[in-house]
Amino acid sequence: DATKIGKKAGSFAISHYKTAAVFVVNNSTGKGIADGFAEVFQAGEGKILFNNLYSDQETDFRTTLIKIAATNPEVLLLGGRPKTAVDLLKQTKELRLSQPIIFHERNAIDTKEFLELGKAVEGIVTPSAIISQNLTNDELRVLQNYQDRYQETMPVWAAESYDAIKLLSMI
Q1: Is 83 helix (H, G, I), strand (E, B) or coil?
Q2: Which residues are within 8 A (CB) of 152 and not within 5 positions of it... i.e. 6 or more apart?
């Protein structure tokens, strides 16, 4: 759940930084991540210098990013849906915000548009699930079939979908 992801991000952040800015999409996921992050980060004596949500229809983040820069946080917790994530990250770098970024939306990170940002997104940290290394032969076959068909490693969201369909077939 989103709050748990936020808590993991907060735990990581407080072990490295004392101040943060939070700027995430205004939906249940964004709110949950922001709340979980704040709970753990502040419990660890961290200070949140800026905390704001944005509409998933928003495309120009510059005004808010300038406000964030003025608070000079040590780390940024950013996040959004894939369609807004690229604009948000691109504008963060355009405005020369050099703070490390914890980015909560791993689905955005799996996109071609995100990867095309190149050096602008190097070093971004994201809380994410991983595909287990202890796989059955059936699971290994599925991963290989995906690799053969799409010429890429199966992203976590596809693996989660596979698991969900497998569970549904058992009902």
Answers
A1: helix
A2: none
Convert the pLDDT of each residue in 72-122 to its tens digit: 999 999 988 777 888 898 999 999 999 999 887 666 676 778 788 887 777
Amino acid identity, residue 167? L
Buried b / exposed e over 62-80, threshold 16 CB at 10 Å, is: eebbeebbeeebbbbbbbb
Closest C-alpha among 54, 19, 16, 64 to residue 38: 19
Amino acid at 48: I
Integer CA distances (angstroms), 163 to 93, 131, 153, 155, 170, in order: 37, 11, 16, 13, 11
Q: Which residues lie below 8 Å from residue 94, measured CB to CB, with a gap of 6+?
A: 62
